[in-house]
């Protein structure tokens, strides 16, 4: 097997086009990459921390407001490649810990220590395909997103302030492909196979970090048939 290790640090400045103080990011990351099975399978792992000053949150009307000093840290694992000549897989897992380090001026100090809005502590995705006889191919995919805070909110205690959450969800997908000849291929994809009802993200109500906001639903079940022709 072969391996590669990587350590990075950096900082960034996001000025934006609203009348807000610029967002500043400081990032630390340590990662490693491995290639196995005669370089057919790639594995990677990384740990990281991102500290934000003047972190921003999106409001219902699409604008942004400042949310003070924030920290997100965690790790991610990934695998991609061919397990066998006919079986391919792509998978990733991320675990996050997030919190408000310092509330923005004018905001309730009880926000400090709360997890950030729209920041799930765990997420997972998988996509795998298998080549069948007679030029058929099947595929399956899944995505998991853990429960997460609707907003960094006010309240008498941190527990009360952070009680509004978006539920965790699983979304599944499937694919069937057929190679008609060397030039023409057909593929049917079904997204959100079981028509799961879920919320993709939330936009916070303007002003004071309330627990209300605009929930954005995820896409329902859909199917798409495509044809690919190679000239």
Described by strand count, sense and barrel closure, the largest sheet is: 10 strands, antiparallel
What is the CATH-assigned architecture?
Beta Barrel
What letter string, H or E per element, gives the SSE order? EEEEEEEEEEHEEEEEE
Helix percent band: under 10%
- What is the helix tally? 1
Low-pLDDT residue spans? 208-212
Oligomeric organization of the protein chains: single chain
Strand order of the largest sheet: 1-2-3-6-7-8-9-12-13-16
Mean model confidence by pLDDT: 84
Let me know the number of strands. 16
The CATH homologous superfamily corresponds to TonB-dependent receptor, beta-barrel domain
Class by alpha and beta content: mainly beta
| Terminal-residue CA separation | 38 Å
**CATH class descriptor:** Mainly Beta
Rg (CA only): 22 Å
Percentage of residues in DSSP E strands: over 45%
Overall tally of domains: 1
Shape: globular
């Amino acid at each position: 097997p072969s391996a590669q290790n990587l350590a990075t640090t950096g900082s960034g400045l996001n000025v934006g086009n609203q009348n807000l103080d610029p967002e500043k990011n400081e990032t630390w990351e340590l990662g490693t990459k491995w290639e196995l099975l005669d370089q057919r399978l790639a594995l990677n792992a990384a740990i990281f921390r991102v500290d934000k000053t003047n972190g921003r949150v999106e409001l219902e009307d699409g604008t942004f407001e400042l949310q003070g000093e924030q920290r997100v840290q965690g790790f991610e694992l990934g695998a991609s490649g061919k397990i066998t000549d006919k079986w391919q897989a792509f998978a990733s897992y991320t675990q996050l810990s997030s919190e408000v380090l310092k509330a923005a001026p004018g905001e309730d100090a009880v926000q400090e220590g709360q997890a950030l809005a729209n920041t799930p502590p765990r997420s997972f995705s998988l996509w795998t395909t298998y080549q069948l006889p007679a030029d058929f191919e099947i595929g399956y995919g899944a995505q998991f997103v853990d429960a997460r805070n609707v907003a960094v909110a006010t309240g008498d205690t941190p527990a009360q302030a952070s009680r509004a959450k978006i539920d965790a969800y699983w979304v599944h997908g499937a694919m069937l492909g057929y190679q008609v000849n060397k030039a023409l291929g057909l593929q049917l994809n079904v997204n959100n196979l079981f028509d799961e009802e879920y919320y993709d993200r939330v936009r916070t109500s303007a002003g004071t970090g309330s627990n209300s906001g605009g929930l954005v639903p995820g896409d329902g079940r859909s199917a798409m048939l495509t044809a690919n022709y190679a000239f």
